[in-house]
Amino acid sequence: MSSASRLSSELHAPIRILIAKPGLDGHDRGAKVVAKALRDAGFEVIYLGLRRTPAQIVAAALQEDVDVIGLSVLSGAHIALARKVVAELQRQEAAIPVVIGGTIPEQDTGKLLELGLAGVFPTSTPLADLAERIRAIVAQEVLQ
Amino acid sequence: MATETAEFALPCGIPLERIYGPDDAGAYPFTRGIHPDMYRGKLWTMRQYSGFGSAELTNERYRFLLEQGGTGLSVALDLPTQIGYDSDHPDVEEEVGRVGVAIDTLADMERLFDGIPLDRISSSFTINGTAAIILAMYVAVAEKQGASPDQIRGTIQNDILKEYAARGTWIYPPEPSLRLIVDTIEFCLERAPRFNPISVAGAHYRDAGASAVQELAFTLADGITYVDRCVKRGLDVDEVGRQISFFFYTHTDFFEEVAKYRAGRRLWAKVMRERFGARTDRACMFRFGCVCGGSSLTAEQPLNNVVRVAYEALAAVLGGVQSMFTCAWDEALTIPGEESAELALRTQQVLAEETGVAKVVDPLGGSAFVEALTDRFEAEVVAIIDEVDELGGMVHAIETGHIQALIAERAYQEQRKLESGERVVVGVNKHRREEARNVEFYEVDEEERGRQTERVRRVRAERDAPAAARALEELRSGAQGTANLMPYLTECAKAYCTMGEMADVLRAEFGEFREPAVV
User: Fold this and answer.
1) Which of A7, A107, B315, B492 is the most exposed place for a label (fewest CB within 10 A)?
2) From CA B82, how far away is CA B102, in angstroms rounded?
3) Complex ipTM, two decimals?
4) Alpha-carbon gap, residue B519 to B485, rounded angstroms
């Protein structure tokens, strides 16, 4: 396959996203709503559920060959948990973009992007924007 | 009777009767309230949920709330404590002291309640997976203060079913978890009759996305499951009925909430009498607490939350609530500061002392609208409970993911309605304004976390090691049999065994729950 046609097919295939909740917090309303919304927007969603360790998340992402990982954290522990997932990805030499949603104060967005996250979606993010922004993130990965 | 005198009057002098209309409160099926004189006799308990960081910091906040006129404590525990991990467990460091206070051993309990007399102040713990362990530690700390188990008052939430379906702090599979719950109920019946061993909490179904009807229906279906298990253990249903209370969210649609509580009272009374054959009226009483706020609060224009919570609190009181927690306006964003926590308490105090709503029993009773809505609510809830019965009961409906799927679907539809503008939330999808947020965010003190880790290690090093090991070994053999585990857990607590050690013994014997695929 030529690189152009490979690019084209990757851009048009449904985006595969793994959605998981790292850490101990059990508030999964947002994660499930996002999973349903992205599925309705044409994504293939693998929903991993609660209390997943960074190792479990990365292993599932690799096994499922996803384009992007979506984390949801509502306990306030988002920075520490994101750092652990990014470190595990680096350890596994996996270049999968990671986005995060939840109760994330504005001042933490910069810190999360510095850690290497590709997108930060606080609780007020509209579902329609979410799908578009994740598409843009994945498209950019493919182009790289 | 003093409460019948004219001391209850409007400011203009018009005297107020205790209750208006033909039906009375305080009698089966309690539609109009569980007590004949309701708030004339005793106001609802104002119980503000709080806890953060270490036991010392939380103890300071409790003393502050009690000095400000709070009448009970409500303990927020951190996630490692709720899920049975010690603060020095390598996988949980970022969660220690974050959403509540860390309790690793009896030593933390001793500091948490330092200077707070447990024979006089009641404490409510939002604890489920490790509820039996926390109760054991509470009994132990009360004894150290000189209070016997029959003197302690309070509540452990101890409602595992909604954890599987909506809140997520489960540990063990349903069957052993239900055994632990019945153990705590049996223990309290015999030893601590003033302590409520379970608060069946629909609140979390609601916050996860359930409607008010689903919230009430799933909660009563859970209640039915617990009573059923107690009866199967051989406990007296009239005794069990006295020990069960309920807990809900009050959201912003005013009459929906009022009708929900009135219908809940009537329906639970019928469940206890008709389904379980309870003879005493006391066992048929639907006593409940609630939170005002939760997911009805918004991060946008957060001061609007003050107004939402005030209206919600009014609905809860007109619905006949026994105990209330009003959220602080900044809770959609962070752990509340002292000022916002105080305002939340003042909201209840103004309602109780100034508005006059506490002077008359069930002021909305007899309204054609409210009575019709109450009837309709009851019918809708009965239909859902029947459906759950047909599915084989709540345990099965949760194990198969049925309840979770219903809740997730409604959460999604609600979000769509919000984004389409079909459901209006002021400041979010209507009357919006660009704003600069001025909220102080709660930061976990890293040093405090380090101190907590040190503390649990020190307790492990300094305790009577053979005694602790023996207590854990006895817990293990108890878990392998069918004995009530509360005495074993209390011995472990007194031997300064840690939360993680006790939970791990039970994990090894009981296994862990696995989430069904829902989405």
Assistant:
1) A107
2) 9
3) 0.90
4) 36
